[in-house]
Amino acid sequence: MKSHIEINRKEDCSGCKCCEQICPKHCISMQEDSEGFWYPEVNENECIHCGLCVERCPLNKAPELSRKLTEPEVFAATLKNKTILQNSSSGGLFSAFALEILKEGGVVFGCAFDENFKAVHIPIFNAEELYKLQGSKYVASDLNSTYTQVRTFLSEGKKVLYSGSACHIAGLQKFLKNENENLLTLEILCHGTPSQKLFRKHLEYLSETYRGEILSYAFRDKSSGWGLNYKTKTKTKTVYSPADKDAYYASFLRGKTYRPSCYECHFAKPERIADITLGDFWGIELFHPAFYNKNGVSAVILNTEKAKAYWEKISDQVDYISSSMKEVRLRNHNLNAPTLKPKCRDAIYDGIDDIPYSEFQKRLKLHGKEAVFSWIKNHLPKSLRLKINRLVFRLKGKGL
After folding, report:
1. Which of 79, 123, 160, 205 has the most CB atoms in a 10 Å sphere around its CB?
2. How far apart, in whole angstroms, are the C-alpha atoms of residue 191 and residue 341?
């Protein structure tokens, strides 16, 4: 076994920072590469070659869930609290689980934007802070020292909910090594993540374009209902638009700008790594049209006995119906396999530091057939799109 972590292929590191936090000599630091993704660097002069960083890396050997259900329980669900639902990306279920942990005197970890719109994982301790963790952040989150913080809270006997992508959860599990009854893990279904550098440069471009400092940026605004629409604000301007009209967002949706490891994701499969798996229930109108909600529907996958116990605590706060992995997997492709790597990905970040972003972003925009399809989709009324989806689904079901 190697005596310390070495990343020879960038596909072999998810940037979870487990190695940095587990090192007893603190001689591993995460450094940003030219694309803006973090990778570990080892100070050879301080390293004692204990091999702990290699042993605990979740991509070397994935952790295993304890008390795993033989078959996961799956639901389509929408939170009854309309205020929380409106501020959530889909059905608001993350908030329900988070509030339950907080009610029990626990701590909730999740992704928030700091004052500079850097995505960072933070702990919150009361319901008044919940807004910080609500809403999607389609950018790599800096986990900082949150694994170490979780270990400290657990040693104090506190309950902890840790939310993130599957690789974040896997890193935490390998860091802790031993299962803790007070830890509840919740993964958000993930396509992949662009770098913080790319997002930072995109926000700088928007600030110049709109002639004002960006005061807010929401990837999943619900002003016109559940979907993929963003909203950004300056002091004098509010811009609300479909995702495809934003170069950063459009390239994200088509998998052009992800971290290299995302295209070989170890966790993009039906077998999940967290107690609870949450995502948008895309396609709910195909299986359960009467349950479609314009304000969002979550897919809830309960993978462990612990998840079932917490579902029983919060289920009276939600409207829900039973579903199946087959139904959820139809439109959540990363439950089946990793995102396919587009041919343009190898060169997509080239020149990000050398040419004006206004020029750089041209390669992120939609072109050709992508642009035509996007225009048609964005100009069809939502009610008509839903009818077309149902019709196509029925035709496919009949083998036509």
Report:
1. 79
2. 11
318-322/107-113 β-pairing: unpaired
**CA–CA separation, 295 vs 217, rounded Å?**
19
Residue carrying structure tokens 């850097």: 118
Residues in Cβ contact with 80 at an 8 Å cutoff, skipping those fewer than 6 apart: 317, 318, 319
Distance CA 259, CA 85 (A): 30
Tokens matching residue 122: 């933070």
Query: Exposed, middle or buried: residue 234 (CB in 10 Å: 0-12, 13-18, 19+)?
Result: middle
Q: What is the DSSP letter of 340?
A: P
- Using a pLDDT cut of 90, give the percent of the chain over it: 82
Encode pLDDT of 274-312 as tens digits. Answer: 999 999 999 999 999 999 999 999 999 999 999 999 999
N-term to C-term CA, the chain: 54
- Copy the structure tokens of residue 200: 């930072």
Which two three-digit tokens encode residue 128? Answer: 């008044």
Given a contact cutoff of 8 angstroms between Cβ atoms, the answer to whether 94 and 278 are in contact is: yes
User: How far apart (Å, rounded) are the C-alpha atoms in residues 360 and 373?
Assistant: 23
Domain locations in the chain as residue ranges? 65-365
Amino acid at 206: L
CA angle 340, 359, 120 (to 5 degrees): 60
339 φ/ψ angles, rounded to the nearest 5 degrees? -60, 135
325 and 334 Cβ atoms separated by less than 8 Å: no
Under 8 Å between Cβ of 309 and 275: no
Distances (CA, A) of 11 to 7, 59, 62, 259: 9, 10, 15, 8
- The pLDDT tens digits for 147-189 are 999 999 999 999 999 999 999 999 999 999 988 999 999 999 9
Q: Write the secondary structure of 224-273 as one string of H (helix), E (strand) and C (coil).
A: CCCCCEEEEECCCCEEEEEHHHCHHHHHHHCCCCCCHHHHHCCCCCCCCC
Q: What are phi and psi of 146, to 5 degrees?
A: -65, -30
Does this model's pTM top 0.85? yes
Instruction: Write the CB contacts of 247 (distance below 8 Å, at least 6 apart in sequence).
Output: 202, 361, 362, 364, 365
Total Cβ atoms within 10 A of residue 284: 26
Instruction: For residue range 334-389, list pLDDT tens digits in order.
Output: 999 999 999 999 999 999 999 999 888 888 876 666 655 655 566 566 666 666 66
